[in-house]
Target: Ras-related protein Rab
Amino acid sequence: MTERLFKILIIGDATVGKTSFVQRYVNDSFKREYKATVGVDFALKVIQISEEDTVRFQLWDVAGQERFTSMTRVYYKDASACVIIFDVTAKQTFNNCLKWKKDLDSKVSLPDGRCVPCMLLANKIDLQEKAVTEEEVNEFCKEHNFIGWTEISVKDNVNVKESMNFLLEEILARH
Ligand code: GDP
Ligand code: MG
Model:
């Protein structure tokens, strides 16, 4: 019987869909109206891997401080993994992913000194007006040491669970 708890950071610019992503993943719900949260929201996702093996994801949804593109060390402390989200229709939110990644890597690492595994998610692919190309994101991920990226739509529930399962595999491979 094993039970493991992992802290997962959800970061990225305001309005990219972080809170929606967490709500979708944890509660399978989607709300259209935008509500800026203040502080940090926590959500817990329990994943039953087998009868004897449970994993808990504690999701840290940054809220309100996104405009600084920077967080405190306390926020990042003891994180097992990170998800950086951008909005495919808003180029600047993609450009800022580099700042988010650098902020992460400068403030936290795994106990063994390695980088915290970080996945990039391109949200809102249900919308037509894409401002970022696949090649750009591929290049960016390779260059800046992301474990992977994928397109998602929290609204249409595309790749939300799948991406988190991928992240889970990556986390377990490190523990
Ligand atoms: P946060 O500031 O990063 O937490 O962003 P929110 O989760 O609050 O979402 C901001 C806005 O984007 C809300 O109006 C959401 O309904 C909307 N949104 C989130 N995900 C999607 C998506 O996949 N597609 C579309 N079209 N809108 C989305
Ligand atoms: Mg939010």
